[in-house]
Specification:
single chain; alpha+beta; Beta-Lactamase; Helix Hairpins; Heat Shock Protein 90; 3 domains; five-stranded mixed β-sheet; four-stranded antiparallel β-sheet; 11 strands; 51% helix
Length: 468
């Protein structure tokens, strides 16, 4: 699964915060346990204190003990020997051995090292810890018959609430990162809307302008304004081109009709028949262009059309002319209707039937209704269309036969016009292989109920997208 831009950026932020948090905690504990940073007194320091206390007395002792007092070090002298058994814990035994090694130069002295918790003292400064600190109580018997008691406390790794040092700052950083992710998601949301708007752009209809987020980044707002301007320019350009094409087609059709009337006064013969056929092809070509321009400009009429009647009428016309046309109806509802332009739908059916007859000598039609659409298939008995050329055959002025000889085919507009008209009605047209070995053209159009629901849904969505 590919992550979005916002998800990728968010993942980077989360991983960076996590790594920084873990790294800071690791550095803290490593520095706290390193020998050079160990805040507890080393055995050599204890030995030095013992030697000084045995050399001085009276007020000087009190002054030395006051100088040694700190948050992590507390020393006092009690009369008599109060040496206990050294704890079996690894840390205490190691400290006891080190202390005895340093005191060996001063002579034999009884030594004991225990954990503060074993001596009844509270563990740590707060009594709570994430990783328990090692608080030691060191007892050394002095030559004066007294006992030096040193409480060596480790720095607490927790705060007053019992949380590890750095946890609060890490939690605060995570909250700040979460807020940053929310802000970043809000900033990238216009880009997602822009991407969706590009996908649903329909130049044949009115441009749906993307609302500008006044609180967004200047670059994103500029991009949205540029996209809206582009939609307007493209829509105006397409409408102007279609209007010009429609006007030219209409005027040329008028001239062709006048020419046809004048040819009727010519003597009967082969040349007269050829001229009439050429003018008929010209008028048909102009009609196709005029219909295509109306579809491109979104100017087709809308009415309830019973497609089975349109198909039946075109089939009867071809049968009357002696062509091999077969029709099979498999409609569950004989009155299945399509919302569209009746003339345009007749032209779609006529173009596809004529194309099948011209290149496949026969046309097998089948009309079936699906749950939300009606499907028309037209099979012929020709050589078929290679798969790599099927998409190109739906483009204007494209023919399988490479020459432009009108005797071997049309102008290459029949399928292109049919495709434009079908797509203008919200349908699709595809080319596949027919069971008879020829080509199969499949037209799928939405039924009226599905069309109405879809258009109502689109209208509601467009209304919500309009800026207040």
């Amino acid at each position: 699964m590919r992550l979005t831009f916002a998800a990728r950026t968010g993942l980077i932020v989360v991983l960076s915060l996590t790594a920084a948090w873990i790294g800071s905690i690791a550095v803290f504990y490593l520095s706290a346990t390193a020998e050079k940073g160990d805040p507890r007194p080393l055995p050599g320091q204890v030995a030095a204190v013992v030697e000084l206390l045995e050399r001085i007395s009276g007020d000087e002792r009190k002054l030395l003990l006051r100088a040694l007092q700190s948050q992590i070090f507390h020393a006092r002298i009690e009369p008599g020997l109060h040496i206990v058994e050294t704890s079996r814990q690894l840390v205490t035994r190691a400290n006891a051995r080190g202390l005895q090694a340093h005191l060996a130069a001063l002579g034999e002295r009884p030594v004991s090292v225990v954990l503060a918790s074993e001596s009844g003292k509270p563990r740590g400064l707060s009594g709570r810890s994430f990783i328990a600190p090692v608080d030691l109580e060191i007892r050394v018997g002095l030559l004066t018959g007294e006992t030096l008691i040193i409480e060596a406390r480790s720095l607490s790794v927790t705060n007053f609430f019992g949380l590890p040092v750095g946890f609060v700052s890490g939690l605060l950083g995570s909250l700040i990162g979460l807020i940053a992710l929310m802000i970043m998601h809000r900033e990238t949301r216009p880009l997602m809307r822009l991407s969706a708007a590009v996908d649903r752009t329909d130049l044949a209809g009115s441009p749906v302008l993307l609302p500008e987020d006044r609180s967004g980044a200047p670059e994103v707002r500029a991009l949205i304004r540029a996209f809206n301007r582009l939609q307007d320019r493209l829509s105006q350009l397409l409408r102007a081109r279609m209007a010009m094409l429609g006007g030219i087609s209409h005027d040329v059709r008028t001239f062709a009709t006048r020419l046809r009337l004048r040819i009727d006064h010519m003597p009967a013969g082969i040349e007269r028949d050829r001229a009439i056929a050429d003018i008929a092809d010209m008028i048909k070509l102009l009609d196709d262009a005029l219909l295509a321009s109306r579809a491109g400009a979104n100017e087709l009429d809308e009415e309830l059309v019973e497609l089975n009647q349109v198909v039946g009428a075109e089939v009867e016309d071809r049968r009357a002319a002696g062509h091999a046309v077969h029709l099979q109806m498999a409609l569950e509802d004989a009155d299945a209707t399509v919302l569209g332009d009746r003339l345009a739908l007749r032209r779609v059916v006529a173009n596809l039937i004529d194309n099948a007859l011209k290149y496949g000598q026969v046309a097998h039609l089948r009309v079936v209704s699906a749950q939300r659409s009606i499907v028309l298939t037209i099979d012929d008995a020709g050589a078929g269309i290679p798969p790599h050329q099927r998409e190109a055959m739906l483009e204007p002025f494209v023919r399988l036969e490479a020459s432009r000889n009108r005797g071997t085919g049309g102008a290459g507009l029949g399928l292109a016009v049919a495709r434009n008209l079908v797509e203008a009605h919200g349908g699709t047209i595809t080319i596949t292989d027919a069971p008879t070995g020829g080509a199969r053209l499949t037209v799928e159009l939405p039924l009226f109920c599905a069309t109405a629901a879809a258009r109502a849904s689109r209208s509601e969505v467009n209304a919500q997208r309009q800026p207040p």
